[in-house]
Amino acid sequence: MTTTTAEPGTVAPVKQKKKSDVQGSGRLAAILLSPTFLVLALVVGYPLIDALRESLYQKNQGLDANGFVVSGDKFVGLKNYTDILTGANSHAFWNAFYNTTFFTVVGVIIETILGVAMALIMHQAFRGRGFVRASILVPWAIPTAVSALLWRWVFQADGVANAIIGHQILWTTEGFHAKVAVLIADTWKTAPFVGLLVLAGLQLIPAEVYEAAKVDGAGTWYTFRKITLPLIKPVLLVAVLFRLLDVLRFFDLPFVLIGAHKDSVNTLSMLAYDEANNLRYGPAAAYATILFVYVALVAYAFVKLLGADIIGDARARKKSTPSKRAKKGSRTIREATA
Amino acid sequence: MASVSRMTRFAVIAASVAVVAAACGGSKSDDKKDASGGSGGALTGRGPITLATGKDTSGNLQNLVNTWNQQHPKEQARIIELPEDADAQRQQMVQNAQTKSNAYSVLNLDVVNTAEFAANRWIAQLPKDQFDLSKFLPAAVKTGEYRNNLYAAPWKTDSGLLYYRKDQLDKAGIKEPPKTWAEMQQDCSKIKGFNCYAGQFEKYEGLTVNFSEAVNSAGGQVVDDSGKPNVNTPQAKQGLDFLVNGFKSGMIPKEAISFKEEESRRAFEKGNLLFYRQWPYAYALSNKKGDSKVVDKFAVAPLPGLNGPGAPTLGGHNLAISQFAPNKATALDFIKYLTSEQTERANLIASSEAPTLASLYDDPELQKKFPYLPTLKASLLNAKPRPQVVRYNDVTTAIEEAAYSALTGKSTTDQALADLQNKLGQLITP
What we know:
Shape of chain A: globular
Number of strands of chain A: 2
Oligomer: heterodimer
Largest interface: A-B, 45 and 49 residues
Largest sheet of chain B: 5 strands, mixed
Distance between the termini of chain A: 30 Å
Distance between the termini of chain B: 63 Å
CATH superfamily of the largest domain in chain A: MetI-like
Number of helices of chain B: 17
């Protein structure tokens, strides 16, 4: 971020600039950015730290002689965490952990494949393309809780889903079918999101590349694998990363579609919510912290392993040569005209 | 670069430390205040008040408040609408109490939440002698009490009823609706082509209601009179077995496991259900021409039980005064106004919501308008509250868990009840 502010003044050689600038513009940048950091500290840092603090406490649950709750928190150290991971109710945590991971892995794979397919279709020039694009986006525009209600209608005992398969499955009861119902509803809602991002990536690929491939006699599949996929990779990875982070926090869809306290679809967020709802803020904060760490680890691993280089993009841009930058400029122009 | 990041890092840490320190300090002083603030204290102060209530589905609440406001220009009441969902209502009220906000004066509290709010000192004790409690339905009064003190005045009540297809029973020559489960099964065997019985068996509060009803109707108790859990008994087993065997034998259709109130109402209105357990609200809806195929074909009766009439579960709402509200004297008057005979009568006529005053059920004029009133009163006199415990949310979750696993065959009735007894023992501190 700081580098971009320095960029306009790239007249002097880089090395010299660094030496002479450190005192003046560095401090200025810090001053100018401090409001941003202050806001970030308030809206991101403070809740995080407070959740961490909270997770080390437990509320008193006991009653005094007159039946009143003994108020006050007591410091319990890491007890909330050990209770969650190894205590009497640890099976609830591990079950939710498994569910969350299952939804994340299976859901994101399905959504990605379908999303790419959607993008490829939307990218084709055909009549009514604008209409198709708009209609594919409708599921994404519907609030999750509302779409969960819609799907509950579909999946109820005498609903559309059972009418279509001609066999009564009680989708919202415990069992693997509940997971399937959640996956279907989630895919319906979020595959368009992946599709839209990938479509943006597709539109950046110059037509000449495909023409060249055609001239060289490459088949459709080969073209897709060797040209389309590598060129949309940066966009696709961002889309997948967003979806990963989203599904790891999965709450509203299983909660509304299947219901609370159902082992088949309970996720980590739902456990945290449940604890908070029962006024046990300590364990709730501990669940939330564990989920936060899990999300952070997955995001880090994803960025490291697959090179979804979101921050690095900026770094690369700074280093890029003028010619590259020019190319990018022409690309953005194309994008604008497309 | 380096200096910048070091500086910002310092700034971030400094800012967050300052904020955290402030927050800690704040909560500590709050705790102290909380410890000293006792339950007693007179209800004093007059002036404007608010009524925090779930979404008013009756459409009549504003009229009641308007009438009050005309009579009390200096003590105006204002409605604050909370979400329709009971869980969300409780959440908002709890949050309001935890921040000790004075935004809510009078709370329209679900009957199951009295104990939690009273034990946490979130609501003020009400003077028993200022309400003529003998005029109210005794079971409804009980839901407003915690440890024999009154914390919430009974306002609206509710109880499960047996809806049955009168046309089919008449056709089969059955004169009276069943009084016991055995009679009900007999009736079902005489009438072919129908599902026999349903209720609300999805894993949610409704399952706790239906489970408690079954247990109470078999002579058992979920929590006994001294406040101890008491579900590992032969009576409770007979109650739960009625439901479990019902699912096994097909007396209860298997999709009923996914029924909430609306799903069961739809199943009944589709016309292939002979008996079902439902709240009174469905009476008017099922008689509305349109989608319902049972218009004028059904009637209601008290729920059947094991050896005689059953014991339905009590629903409804009570009015309580927030501990943190100013103008508590006005709030008390407002509650007296809402629970007065005149207001409850007007509200019944306008909204068909069941009142808590016993005399209204015997009023011939009202009975003409609401033919189910005598049945409802008979039900209400038999009705039992759900467990009145401080940690109600945990308790109802445990009950749902046990009942659901028994109904779906995941565990035996004995196992489910033994587990539940054990769980409730941990959750309920006598």
